[in-house]
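Why do we bother with a discrete structure alphabet at all? Because it lets us treat a fold like text: something you can write down, compare, and reason about line by line. To make this less abstract, here is a complete entry for Tyrosine specific protein phosphatases domain-containing protein. Read it the way you would read a sentence in a foreign language you are learning: slowly, and without expecting to understand everything at once.
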Amino acid sequence: MKSMSNTIMVSSKTPSRSSKVSCMLSENPTTKMEEYNIAMKKMMRNPYEDHHDLGMNYTLITDKLIVGSQPQKPEDIDHLKREEDVAYILNLQQDRDIEYWEIDLKSIIKRCRDLEIRHMRRPARDFDPDSLRSGLPKAVSSLEWAISEGKGKVYVHCTAGLERAPAVAIAYMFWFCDIDLNTAYNRLTSKRPCGPNKSAIRGATYDLAENDPWKEPFENLPGHAFEGISNWERKLGNEPFENLPMC
């Protein structure tokens, strides 16, 4: 079924469990989902919620790019292959995220191999803009490589598909698709309501800029800095990607 006009929900038959994890931030949580959503709202300061019990959900952003939540079981991989022609999966979760939701990642990776889907990981810490900022170049590099291969769609996911994954997709559109940051941001969030950290993307763009010892510290720049870049700056910014490993 569809929860929004263009977001697909893949129903999960596995009941959610309520075991506690010490890294989450809420007091006396009753379920993992409530616990996660309280932490997300506190750290990201946005109104969006994950609905893990409804299964994997995702949104087609372009004809080659899908952003969504974590696949929860091997059958989700079958769905992505059969229904969406997915040939690559880019996973942004840390091990602790996967352990928290008790996802059997080995079985998911095995199913990817069986279906000839390339599974890649570029972990970034959830709710952490600094971790996202530092991880964006390598994650976007993997995404750009997969899209350029052209063998099928790329499925980019974190846990809920509301922060890390959309940020990677937005940064890709900004850096490689010749559009400014606000346009990329608005285009994605109009299709998939979510709250990726725009400042982390701006910061990563700043980090990729020419190494100038006199460059003003990012924290001192106005809020609109690095929302748009010229063609020569775009070319300069993309040069570091040539030396990054793809996966």
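What the structure line is telling us, in plain words: The chain has one domain: 2-10+40-242. The first strand starts at residue 2 and ends at 4.
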